[in-house]
Amino acid sequence: MDEDDMDYLEQAGSDEDYGLEYSDDESDNDDGSQDVENMYYKAKGLKEDEPEEALKAFRAIVTSQSEKNEWGFKALKQSTKLLFLVLQRPADALATYTELLTYTKSAVTRNYSEKSINSILDYVGEGGKSGKKKGGVGGKGSVKVDVEVLEKFYEVTREALAESKNDRLSTKTNLKLAKLWLDKKEYSRLNKLIRDLHEAISAGDDSDQSKGTVLLEVYALEIQMYNETKNFKKLKEIYNACLQVRSAIPHPRIMGVIRECGGKMWMGEKKWNNASEDFFESFKNYDEAGSPQRIQ
After folding, report:
1. CATH of 188-295 given 1.25.40, 1.20.1560, 3.80.10, 3.30.1330
2. Whole-angstrom Cα distance, residue 140 to residue 157?
3. Region annotation Disordered: residue ranges (predicted)?
4. Is 188-295 in the same CATH topology as 35-129+144-165?
């Protein structure tokens, strides 16, 4: 059993029993579900040695269902993974992923769909960022992804999330993409995305206690961008803005990033005591987060 099935079982186990009554008349549906389940696990058994045949088998599951359901969703999720990581066809993986997103409205629970989307974007981002394949599936080597294809994965995700009015995951997705653009040094794309994030935060509910936390995450990305592009005037402006944020509970790694960039800023101004203080605070935050950056 792989992580896809574990995710689904964990989600199914968390659903509450609302006292629904079941009758024997449903036995026919149970038989049909059992057939699809058998098809799914047979397809999974082909993944390692016959990925193309596995792909056809997963597609057969999707086409055999008259309505969108969890088995079709899981088959599309496996197909996306195969196409991207094993067969190394990112454009085809994108098409399958786009189809999968149409299932998130009704076929599976919101939590399971969110977990699946995050999982897919994680390995797509790893392939697009470093050329390294995540998960070790298939042993086919690195995955090369054009920036335009990579951007499209996030674009179709944002469109689907906007349609379902899932603002929280939409913001998390944009933050994930912003980190990717920073790693790839795509500063023009990053700059535009940061502006979009600031607009979304400004338009958000002022009573939302997570607003300050998200704002600090955006500032951390912004301050790294200005540090790398050596725009020290803007860096200092963002650094001071970070210190004014209230009602935030940021991850210690985020504060580690902000303090590290602050230390470099103070060094540039030859304010050694300030630099020492910020570097020490950075180290403490990285250490609390268990980040290897504390060694650096």
Report:
1. 1.25.40
2. 27
3. 1-38
4. yes
